[in-house]
Amino acid sequence: MIKDSSRGLESFTVEGLTINQIQEWVPDIEIIMKDLGIPITNKDSSLKYLCDEAGYELSQVLQAIFSREAQKKEIEMQKEAINFSNIDRIRIETGFDKDGNREPVESIELRSGEIVAIVGPTGSGKSQLLFDIESLAVGDTVSKRKVYLNDNLWEVSDDSYNMIRPIAHISQTMNFILDLSVYDFLNLHIESRLGISNNESLIDDVIKTACKLCGEPFTGEMQLVSLSGGQSRALMISDAVLISKSPIVLIDEIENAGINKDVAINFLTGKGEIALLATHDPVIALKADKRIVLKNGAISKVIERQKEESDILEMLLENERIVEDLRKKMRLGETIAL
């Protein structure tokens, strides 16, 4: 008899049980054995026989089973503690700049549906702020900031955090290395995230949305590795919102990735995301509800969108429309003339 009462696990007998029998109450037994490096030559063999054959103590496998079951329970507890759909705000308690001085802004609160631009010169700390938010910092990063979800700090183990994270971060440069079609990739993600497979309507919705975001149509039959940078990032934005349903989306320099900025901002706003966009683009900065200004690693100020900036924004948008029209003509090989 084996028992681990400290983790609340039931007693069970393993002596003589085969892998097939054990799998009924430990579905992950094959994964556990593989992680330990114990080959399963025959699933009708007993666990003890396979351990002896590989030179392992039976207790090592049992401890691995206990650890994995305890980890599952922790994950379930965290899922119950914070429901992603209930996350409607984040609060950032600031820390220190690169010289060790307190940040001028003490606290920032961001709410669902807000588009927030993160601005500042190169090296000002934009990437560090994104990292702090993505990490759900608890004073454990260089800046010493703390990030609260609905007034709660997110303190979980690394393993469970990776599995149930409520934040999607789309970086500047990304390329797929998986040898899968777009359809198979999305289906795999839906299976692991939502527990269903072959959800044709959801997969179709994700692909259609991604095509709108990047303006470069692609299909589910295309291989991930064949997607352009813009298509890849568009797919990840669409995936993060429609499949992962991440309430917080971080995007680093969306203007440099072949993404239609207007479509992306409207999409994120319409889905009620808290979207933070690190940017050097004045159009994105002026369209945002707030601008977080970084200087020397510190949040120096937070600027609410001003009414008088609307005229400047409209002028910039008109210029962008002209440039976009020229870009399309050049791509089609047309002659450009006044």
Automatic annotation (TrEMBL):
SUPFAM superfamilies the UniProt entry points to: P-loop containing nucleoside triphosphate hydrolases
InterPro entries linked: AAA+_ATPase (IPR003593), ABC_transporter-like_ATP-bd (IPR003439), ABC_transporter-like_CS (IPR017871), P-loop_NTPase (IPR027417)
Bilayer-crossing regions: none
PROSITE patterns recorded: ABC_TRANSPORTER_1 (PS00211), ABC_TRANSPORTER_2 (PS50893)
Short name of one Pfam family: ABC_tran
Residue ranges of domain ABC transporter in the record: 82-321
SMART domains the record matches: AAA
Cell wall biogenesis/degradation is among the record's keywords: no
Annotated GO MF terms: ATP binding; ATP hydrolysis activity
Keywords of the record: ATP-binding, Nucleotide-binding, Transport
Similarity section: Belongs to the ABC transporter superfamily.
Protein known as: ABC transporter ATP-binding protein
Organism per entry: Acetivibrio straminisolvens JCM 21531
